Amino acid sequence: MSNSNKRLKYAKHHAETVYVGEYIDLKKVQEGIRHYVYLNRDHPLVIRVLKEQYVVLTKFGAVTFWNVSQRLRKEFLKEIIPFVKNKKTNYPYDEETKVFIGGEVEKITFDTVYLTKLEPSEIKIISYVLSQSVALERYEDEIEANLSEIGVIVENLKSTGRAMLNERGLLKQIGNVLSVKQTAVAHLSLFDKPEEVWESPGLESLYNRMNFEYELQDRFDILDEKIKYLSDISQMLMNFLAEKRNAFLETIIILLFVVDLGLWFLPPFPEVLTYIRSLF
Q1: Cβ–Cβ under 8 Å, residues 126 and 110
Q2: Any idea of the CA torsion for 23, 140, 91, 151, to the nearest 10 degrees?
Q3: CA–CA gap between residue 41 and residue 26 (Å, rounded)
Q4: Which of 40, 35, 69 is nearest to 52 (CA)?
Q5: Are residues 108 and 140 in the same domain?
Q6: Distance (Å, rounded) from C-alpha 73 to C-alpha 240?
Q7: Which end of the chain is more exposed for a tag (fewer CB within 10 A), N or C?
Q8: Residues 252, 253, 259: CA angle, nearest 5 degrees
Q9: Considering the entire predicted model, what is its pTM?
């Protein structure tokens, strides 16, 4: 940035995004909390809580605070808790950036944004990208944890030919994988571009540049590949269980056949009992 731009006085804003739960019901938020000013009614939802202080909510569980004090944040989070699905007291996922308004040059880096103006549409786009990054981080961690657990099972199958888990343990592991997959797939569909970018070249440029800085597309593609891999492994484990059950049933059938065959050649039970008595 040139020296003349450095001397300009910028209006500074601070945006921080936190992950609060799997899903936020935006419609119920608007119905249940009426003392704030809603700047729009679609997704993501932009709320003015005080002058120059905003909160942006996404369906996929991320909340972005603009210039909001810690006290007001806590109060606001308490208010929306009834409308959050699978909430926790504290998730370790957050992003923050500084936004400077003024000057003639727009510049975007990983943690700093310079814009010529800041309107609700820009607040919406910046918050949306930060929210996507935070939500992706949550799913990245969950998928990675499942990959580690599945990796142990795969390694055991490779080295010993056994999963080293009973059927119940395997079914539980498969259930965990399918649950994470279902949650991720259901919400990753929300990671498309917001509608505004299709109508405004300036907003599309802002979204694309922030998307590039936070590597959203690359992270999404990697996550998608890991989900497909987990699906394949889950199918393999289910096939493995089915084969184990089939082998067990075949063993039972063979044993029953042998027993039945033995009974065929044995004399009637009264004769066997008489014979045993004669021995004593």
Answers
A1: no
A2: 120
A3: 9
A4: 69
A5: no
A6: 49
A7: C
A8: 90
A9: 0.79
**Do both 75 and 117 map to the same domain?**
yes
Q: Are residues 114 and 134 in the same domain?
A: no
pLDDT tens, 13-38? Answer: 999 999 999 899 999 999 999 999 99
Can you give the residue range of the structural domain that contains 226? Answer: 130-244
The total number of structural domains that make up the chain: 2
**Bridge partners of residue 119, in order along the sequence:** none
Share of the chain above pLDDT 90, in %: 43
Q: What b/e sequence results for 258-272 when a residue is b if at least 16 CB atoms lie within 10 Å of its CB, and e otherwise? A: eeeeeeeeeeeeeee
Name the residue type at position 140.
E
Collapse the DSSP code of 191 into the 3-class scheme (helix H, G, I; strand E, B; otherwise coil) and give the result: coil
The 8-class DSSP code of residue 81 comes to G
Bridge-partner residues for 50, per DSSP?
53
Q: What CATH number does the domain containing 124 carry?
A: 3.30.310.10
